[in-house]
Amino acid sequence: MKAREIAFKILCDIEENNNYSNIAINKHFKNLKISNQDRGLATEIVYGVVENKYYLDYVINKLSKIKTQKLSICVKILLRMGIYQIAFLNSISDYAAVNETVNLVKKYDKRSSGFVNAILRNIIRNKDEILNVDIENDDIMYLSTKYSYSPWMIKNFINSFGRDFTEDLIEANNEKPSIYLRTNTLKISRDELIEKLKENGLKVYKVSIIDEAIKVENLKDIENNELFKEGLFTIQDISSMMASKVLNPKENSNALDVCSAPGGKTTHIATLMNNTGKVISRDVFEHKLKLINNTVNRLGLTNVEVQNFDASILDENSVDKFDYVLADVPCSGLGIIRRKPEIKYKSKAEIKDLPVLQRKILENASKYVKVGGSLLYSTCTILDSENIEVINNFLKENDNFELVPIDEVNVDLDNQEKGYLKIYPNIHGMDGFFIAKLKRVR
Ligand SMILES: C[S@@+](CC[C@H](N)C(=O)[O-])C[C@H]1O[C@@H](n2cnc3c(N)ncnc32)[C@H](O)[C@@H]1O
């Protein structure tokens, strides 16, 4: 099977089963023998089509008498793929985009091939006009169509950040995120790892704000990389690494991570503790625990104990027991749209109850902290309602906790003195994140 056909199958899977693109891509690529070039093109088309879904449907609806809601999934996806290639992929000629798409329609829905052919040829005859978003007098609909976002999200961003910041943010969210590695400092130093990665032909750069972080280009098929299998590194975005750095756990202490799967921060905390003391790593979903255990074992950590526990329930046995507690709570994910573009289409209803759950988890987590101990709250979203507002509401009712200045990293100088970090993809070039550091003072 070639790139476009694989992309088509993956996109059908996403559309029919509401799967996340990264999960669908991994599932379909597993055990599939294809060249790196085909893998690259298929991945590019899948992410591109998901990222630009509203825009691509807008273009289809300009030209088709049958609106996208009425088209069969197969025809809709193939049209989106064809238009995506014409509008965004300069390396592919318009004629190749049309012919390859029509060939696939002939294979999967023969009677629609004339219809698809006519639409795509119409676009290439009059590209500038047809590909333009000509929505006037409704800025929210204009941005929502051009950048493919649920309109409520655009409205929310404009209210919170203003018009210019919003366009900057949603443009940055369409960029490909860099890949970062976290050195397993128990096994190797960052400089030694950099040498080994270079010997493997990879392009690598030191990251200044995190001692153990490395930015890497052209890393493919990570699971089968020998250095990865040896446990010399793990994959993690910089903002996520920052959470454990800010928590800054000391050797021989007791730490608890109440929402820990797949284990990125748990294993970082355990490594920062130099494989001493104890890290209890919990998650409510039993099937996710093996992801944590796999990373713990691969990295050679022996100070982590993985447990199945619901953080929204108070565990009386853990009260006052821990020096460090991390609540990296479930959230709307609006900071990681670059990695999971389908988040752009979440409805308001889907995320409205999150602050209540987040507050509950934070409240319980706080009970486990010893006097003098640290509590870190983090999310990968940029909405204040899930971030600083949860913290402020918590502090109103818990005067035994205080926000403490963050001096372990230097990224958000405006706020870190106040005890929290707000990270944005368009400003910091990292996943959008929120980190608040609290101390139990009595
Ligand atoms: C943001 S993710 C955690 C990421 C993780 N800390 C890491 O760095 O790899 C939030 C996690 O919370 C878990 N979760 C959701 N509801 C929970 C609950 N009530 N109790 C415990 N864990 C929960 C989810 O399974 C999810 O893995």
TrEMBL record:
One Pfam family this sequence matches: Methyltr_RsmB-F
Range of residues in the leader sequence: none
Localisation per UniProt entry: Cytoplasm
Keyword RNA-binding: yes
Residue positions binding S-adenosyl-L-methionine: C259, S260, A261, P262, G263, G264, K265, D283, D310, D328
Domain SAM-dependent MTase RsmB/NOP-type: 169-441
Keyword terms, alphabetized: Cytoplasm, Methyltransferase, RNA-binding, rRNA processing, S-adenosyl-L-methionine, Transferase
Catalyzed chemical reaction(s): cytidine(967) in 16S rRNA + S-adenosyl-L-methionine = 5-methylcytidine(967) in 16S rRNA + S-adenosyl-L-homocysteine + H(+)
Origin species: Romboutsia ilealis
Source species, domain of life: Bacteria
Free-text function comment from the UniProt entry: Specifically methylates the cytosine at position 967 (m5C967) of 16S rRNA.
InterPro entries: MeTrfase_RsmB-F_NOP2_cat, MeTrfase_RsmB-F_NOP2_dom, Nop2p, NusB-like_sf, NusB_RsmB_TIM44, RCMT, rRNA_ssu_MeTfrase_B, RsmB-like_ferredoxin
Identification of the protein by name: 16S rRNA (cytosine(967)-C(5))-methyltransferase
